[in-house]
Write a structure and sequence with these properties.
By secondary structure, the protein is an alpha+beta fold. It folds into 3 domains: 7-81, Alpha-Beta Plaits, CATH 3.30.70; 89-167, Alpha-Beta Plaits; 170-252, no CATH class. The protein contains 7 helices and 9 strands. The strands form 2 sheets. The protein has a 5-stranded antiparallel sheet with strand order 6-7-5-9-8. A 4-stranded antiparallel sheet has the order 2-3-1-4. A hairpin with a 2-residue loop joins strand 8 (155-158) and strand 9.
Length: 252
Amino acid sequence: VTIRKTINLVIGPTDKAVGRYTSSQDTKDAVLNAVNPSKVGLRVSRLTKARNNAIRIEACEADLDRLRASPGLKEAGLEVKKNVMLNPRVIIYGVPSVLLSDVIRSQLAEQDVDGEGIDDIRVVYRYPARQAKSYSSCVVEKRPETRSRFISAERVFLGWSACKMADHVKVLQCFKCLSFCHLAANCTKTVHCGHCSEDHETKQCSHRDKPPHCFNCSLAKETYQSHSAFDVNKCNVLKHRITAKIHRINYG
């Protein structure tokens, strides 16, 4: 994955103006009316909704001082807020299943010559080992300043294994309705099949002998729809989600 450098910022209501904005759309409309991008050195590549009736802006360039001092922004009761970026995650392949998570953290910390401590490493998820296999994959979260050093090493040594690794970016997608940001266990939406798009769960699909049809790409009116809704290489909707998440990760 090529990681394109972007500037991420969030604009939302000030504490005194919270009652004036009831949605991110209200905030977006106000920003578009209050700010002239060229006058604040802002070159926007993407604009999306954020929490608390705010909007998130991804830009190629931005003069944050000029943007914060913008009279139009102040008159509208809006401000540039601190954008909390995510720490990078790395997937490690071929990890011995017998190793406890704390042992993995300890051994990774010992191999960092610049002194990353065990408290700077978090084991996020361990994939279950396949039948008759004694190895699996493990996802760890690291500090931005150590991620590049970690990746450039190409291998880490855990137990008696030399393990390969790579950047790991995953978005939360519901296996029931196929939309994002929630789990199937909490889903109250209509069921759609990830293979054929019909109203049944993917695991119950009886049309596996037919070409797939992506429900999400159909909904988004994408040109190419002949793929599974979970196909990260072909589904444009899923790829857009992953790209958006990459831009929210602090790679240092």
